[in-house]
Amino acid sequence: MQELKNRIISEGEVIGTHILKVDSFLNHQIDPAFIMRMGQELARRFESAGITKILTVEASGIVVATAVGLALGVPVVFAKKKKASTQQGDLYTAKVYSFTRQEAVDISVSSRYLTPQDVVLIADDFLAHGEALKGLVSIVQQAGATLAGAGIVIEKKFQRGAEDLRAVGVRIESLASIESMQPGMISFS
Amino acid sequence: MQELKNRIISEGEVIGTHILKVDSFLNHQIDPAFIMRMGQELARRFESAGITKILTVEASGIVVATAVGLALGVPVVFAKKKKASTQQGDLYTAKVYSFTRQEAVDISVSSRYLTPQDVVLIADDFLAHGEALKGLVSIVQQAGATLAGAGIVIEKKFQRGAEDLRAVGVRIESLASIESMQPGMISFS
Description:
Chain A has 189 residues and is an alpha/beta fold. The first copy, chain A, has helices at residues 2-11, 32-45, 61-72, 131-143, 163-167, and strands spanning 13-15, 19-21, 29-30, 53-57, 76-79, 91-98, 103-110, 119-127, 146-156, 172-182, 185-188. The first copy, chain A, has a six-stranded mixed β-sheet, with helices on both faces.
């Protein structure tokens, strides 16, 4: 998606060779109209897949997932990052390690909102090492639902998080896929 | 907002007299089209206030804030709940106690995304004890920005979180305001 690549180049901040901050439109400040356009583009790529539900994980993935859900006319479910005192009942859970925060968290989804009848599109803002994505795929499998694929805003392809999943046939669509980066230089694939 | 009250009555789960779960459309599963209608209604109530920015806090407030920002055509900024390793530079911070999670967290906003020129509408999904709202008001004040008010989806009025702020003239609009509740019985004001 050219508009996204342009904004990554003009507004993104590369720290070292692995960290890309896009806080001006996605991860701290949000450009709502732009998020909606990205959601529409991800929805377009999966429009014939019979999606019944979008799955993501809090926090910054939620708006992208909601934009996709709005475009496809289906509900969004977001996995929660820890079991809060108001959650109860049967949960599907997965352990996810965050390289950004350098900690492992449990993510969970209530069995009420993901069923064997669902055809699930996972949506997220970033794909790096693929930890969150693998956790969400595990939750889809635990639910006995059908996985249609994953729609990602920015894939840092050099961190190879999608390789294992693509190798087993999971369809992963990214709006911008970065081959390599360093301050002042971002190469898209 | 009648549609919201109807859905709280039909889908909400009251636990004891203080906890209301609306996980089927707001806090775990999201109904994107309904969120957009709620955002439009909050935007309508503040449409003449000259809003330049929506402020909220992660996680579940973000979609509501994004819906309001989309309707008003302005950016959304969400306070982050802990300082991640990719955040740096000047931050406005406030300590917020969550009664749901029974822990205090620091919330922070980069000074880059909130300036003295901004007219800020705070948006959030719930208002209970008002801890998050007071933290966000503090961040607006630290930035030297103008506070236009707060737009809330569900206010649990009996927990009196808005009283101090309304007493000092802060405009707080809620789409549904609950006077009292117990399992099987919710009274709106």
